[in-house]
Amino acid sequence: IVDMKKMNKVLDFDPKSKIVYAEAGVTIKELNEKLKAVNFEFPILCNEISTLGGMIARGEISELGKYGDIKNWVEEIEFVNGRGEFIKIGKSDLSDVCGMEGINGIILKAKLKIIPLSYRSASIFQSDNLHETLLIARRLRLEEEIIMLKLFDPYISKILGLPEKYNLIVFFDSDKGKINGDEFYEFFKKINKRDYFVYSKGFYGAVDAKFFIDKIDQFILFLEEIGVYYSVDLLNGIVISFFNEKSDEEKVLNIINKMNGKFVKYGFGLKRKGLIDNLQKKILHRVKLRHDPFRRFNNGKVFDFGDKIESFDEEIIRERFDDKKIDIKEEIKQFPIKK
């Protein structure tokens, strides 16, 4: 286990190019506290204790849906791969590290795009009618100044201390909303603790699924029909389904597969690696072989490498290396390839 939390410095800040250079162990809270002092922020907001390296490894998606995922805000990543090489990854190769869940190496530092600090506000649309709420949401998606659009079903709304209705939460990059100032930031914190409040009520798990916008309504209606509670990021097209029955989880996973939904927010790790489709597996194997061919990092996490690598012989592996002095046979003895 490698703990990077002591590498928590903000190393450089350039207000002209709007770039910040920071170590992997800095938390999003620490980073934004320092940026706030100079009227800037990094808008990929999530759990305050999340570290920069962890967010990059997981491919974090901002709670402020307009800003999307962290990959769009990373300019450069510095990391050490499975060969012990120090590498700088630029924009064109970010997928080799971003969203790979640490299976290729250790993230050390990153350069990030930042934005000027904004004044934000929020409003809540409440209704007993789901179809009315979804209709309003479709219209609001077109508003440029809206940076977050989230829907909570009546039960999840109640858990969060909201009226037991369909609550459509709207965040503005302006003072247009009715919830302003300190009240806004307290409200945002409460919304961000959604999972904590849900699990405190006895739920055992959740599944995230990303759909094309035109399929979201269909999926929500399916959840309503089988009685599964949910929240929706209507700007990113991500639906979180919460479970207290195993049978419900199986039904939801089945329909996600049929509707070609993608798992994007919670990652895969050990528990969910069976949900990775064949195309994703091929991509993961290819990237893993490039950076960590002898499986030094996180073996068995995300996917099982052994069942695929057996088709690669010593000659093919050597072609991946520029350093011809490396003793492939000795490496293979240490990390045996299944035959």
Key words describing this protein structure:
five-stranded antiparallel β-sheet; alpha+beta; disordered C terminus; 12 helices
Radius of gyration: 22 Å
Report the sheet-strand fraction: 15-25%
How helical, in percent, are the residues?
25-40%
> In sequence order, what are the helices and strands, one letter per element?
EEHEHEEEEEHEHEHHEHEEHHHHH
> What would the principal axes of the Cα set say about the shape?
globular
Look at the structure and give the mean pLDDT: 86
| Quaternary | single chain
What's the story with the biggest beta sheet? 6 strands, antiparallel
How is this structure best summarized?
The protein has 339 residues and is of the alpha+beta class. It has helices at 28-36, 52-58, 130-140, 154-159, 181-192, 194-199, 213-226, 246-258, 278-291, 306-309, 314-319, 328-334, and strands spanning 10-14, 19-23, 40-41, 74-81, 86-89, 105-113, 115-116, 121-127, 146-152, 166-172, 205-210, 229-233, 238-243. It is 32% helix and 22% strand.
Write up what this structure looks like.
The chain is of the alpha+beta class and 339 residues long. Helices cover 32% and strands 22% of the residues. It has twelve helices and 13 strands. The chain has helices at 28-36, 52-58, 130-140, 154-159, 181-192, 194-199, 213-226, 246-258, 278-291, 306-309, 314-319, 328-334; strands spanning 10-14, 19-23, 40-41, 74-81, 86-89, 105-113, 115-116, 121-127, 146-152, 166-172, 205-210, 229-233, 238-243. The strands form three sheets. It has a six-stranded antiparallel sheet. Strands 1-2-6-4-5 form a five-stranded antiparallel sheet, with helices on one face. A hairpin with a 4-residue loop joins strand 1 (10-14) and strand 2. It is globular and about 55 Å long.
